[in-house]
Amino acid sequence: MDLDELMIAEFNGRIVRKDLTKQLKEGANVPVYVLEYLLGMYCSSAEDEQINEGMKTVKKILTENYVRPDEAEKAKSLIREKGTYKVIDKVTVKLNQKKDIYEANLSNLGINDAVVPSGIVKQNEKLLTGGIWCIITLSYFYEEGQKISPFSVSNLKPIQMPSMNMDEIFDARRKFTLDQWMDLLLRSIGMEPANLKHRAKWHLIARMIPFVENNYNVCELGPRGTGKSHVYKECSPNSLLVSGGQTTVANLFYNMTSRQIGLVGMWDVVAFDEVAGMRFKDKDGVQIMKDYMASGSFSRGRDSIEAKASMVFVGNIDHSVETLVKTSHLLAPFPDEMIDCAFFDRFHGYIPGWEIPKMRPEFFTDRFGLITDYLAEYMREMRKTTFSDSIDKFFKLGNNLNQRDVIGVRRTTSGLLKLLVPHGDYTKEDVRTCLTYALEVRRRVKEQLKKIGGMEFFDVNFSYIDNETFEEFFVNVPEQGGSNLIPKGISKSGVVHFVSSGATGKLGVYRLESQMTAGNGKHSTSGFGADTSAKEQARVGFEYFKGNLNRIAATSRFSDHEFHLHFVDLQSSGNSHSSSLSSLVSCCSILLNKPVQEQMVVLGSMTLGGVVNPVQDLASSMQVALEAGATKILLPMASATDIPTVPAETFTKFQVSFYSDPVDAVYKALGVQ
Length: 673
What we know:
By secondary structure, the chain is α/β, with parallel strands linked by helices.
């Protein structure tokens, strides 16, 4: 059976053709769930005649009742002349303490003091935080001397489904295959799965996890135009998109003055758009957010307050992912005050926005999908259950996952299963697929933590073990791949890779390239800029080369040649002040026309007198070398005592050569015994 036919059979009255939404959306600036609420009432049919009639009705309602901001005065006049009038608008309510009344702000109508009965406010608390779209009946009454607004709300109906039968969803789900159900969900949020790659589909589904999973923290960074904020703004009345990123502790968490809980207590999802501009006006804002993201509760005054809202962070990446992976980390767009391992460690997943295509017309569907509001209610109901124990039935998580990793993976897996297998009849392969994705998005967070926080987060080799076969499966993140900073194959003579701390204070991978021409023994450098200290290190290597050449190659004469050393900072770590030994190896390599061993990294530095300095932070240096693609390490004997600090998983990936002095280092680097 065709997917459309299956949807009509199972969800009759709960579906709508998404091209109708698009037609209306172009003419009315209201959220999708508002339009589909109306379409669901009048156009939930496959018959063209009924749809056409329904569209006329919906257009009439929008024409007569939806107030465009530029027609606000006309609408106010209608309310005055008729006495009562029905409008569709976004309503926010605040308490006027001086008058002891609730006053409504109608965003399009431009009324900010319409009187609201307290009974309506009690039934719809979201009116007090962020506001909701409603069908409102406004009344107008004025008499001379009155101190309140002549406008009042006599009736208010939130735009949302009146009731939700979850058994209906569960029974219907059993008629669909997993792929069909995934396509149904994607069409329900307006996307056309037929034109999307398989991984892009999974990422779009992952965007919906915060709607079904309590206290789920996720970020998505990627290029502009990939629809990162669309689902949080348009597809559910239960989520709030905080645009611009500016907020306060009182607004987000708890207002100590009014003793009211903030957005996290009123919404299922709080999404922050444009994280680069995210700012807390309070100094303790980030700290309270960290507390909340870790435990789902926070302290204000003497109270510990719990809330269920999921936190979503979306933003743009301005550089190519390949560049960021090599030179920085994939959380770089966050503001400086948030570049904090403890904050990022609370993310349960990182959706790779760069794998989602930029939105073009063919990616939006014209086919049937669930009414957005029906979908939103289904997702909201699923927050009451958990599938986090589903993993244990079939698999065990690997030993590289710490407690926070386990929590993140369990929540992501649970969220995906709630979306894809809501009735709970999941198979081993269903769990495996969701678990693999969960491990990937959590590992992406961990990979960035490793770059920011160093070896504290070295254990990134995430895996799971099959309970039946005891086979262990490792999960990678595609963008890390096999980094090619240090390419496979033999390099040219004179090319040396080394790892050291840069001027920025972080470890980086560097390359030295030597050139040799006929001359009289002169030496020059480039690539260091005006950094005399860095140039001095290169000079130390050359002077040692000059004074000890007879120990390395008795028949060679450096005075017949001119040497030029070029320095390349491969990871934007700033100039290295530890290039002396690598400079020596580079000069010897070009003079002897013998390349350095394949994929080798040189560690350590030396003094002009030939004293070898041990490696600072050996464990992190080897980890950086490993990520850059190195398979061989040249290590000073002076650092042998630090080997126990290196995780076994890292150390065993290398073929290690030890050197006792600079000349020994040259022999080992060039593979000369």
